[in-house]
Amino acid sequence: QVQLVESGGGLVQAGGSLRLSCAASGRTFSSYNMGWFRQAPGKEREFVAVITWTAGSSYYADSVKGRFTISRDNARNTVYLQMNNLKPDDTAVYYCAATTAFYSGTYSLKSEYKYWGQGTQVTVSS
Asked: What is the pLDDT of residues 45-102, one digit of tens each?
């Protein structure tokens, strides 16, 4: 069982930066693939980024590539999402998610993740 708690959301102007954190409970954090998703009002929850447990490889949605960076600190049981050059379209509730394996081989699918946090609101003003 893994519990995830996000923090770091807030209101920022376009072009600004935020760093989201996701603290995980449990002693096996290092064996989990950790992802970030987001959901804007009236839209489906969408994949943002993932970092694997095996080699620490990271993958991003095209919409955030070059602006967002995902990282993890296994000693602190925490995964981060550094968001730079934020745009109004980045406004959403951001969710942290965890899974031990991608059974379909597709890391961007919501259904691949077993554990979810409650989310943190990010609002980018123009």
From this structure: 999 999 998 778 999 999 999 999 999 999 999 999 999 999 999 999 999 999 998 8
Residue 111: exposure state from Cβ atoms within 10 A (0-12, 13-18, ≥19): exposed
> Residue 14 carries which side chain, given as an amino acid letter?
A
Number of alpha carbons in the 13 Å side-chain half-sphere of residue 16: 15
Cβ count within 10 A of residue 31: 13
Burial of 66 (0-12, 13-18, 19+ CB in 10 A): exposed
Give the whole-angstrom CA distance, residue 3 versus residue 54. Answer: 21
Neighbour tally for 15: CB within 10 Å: 11
Query: Residue 109 corresponds to which amino acid?
Result: L
Tell me the C-alpha distance between 103 and 114, whole Å.
11
3-state SS, residue 89: helix
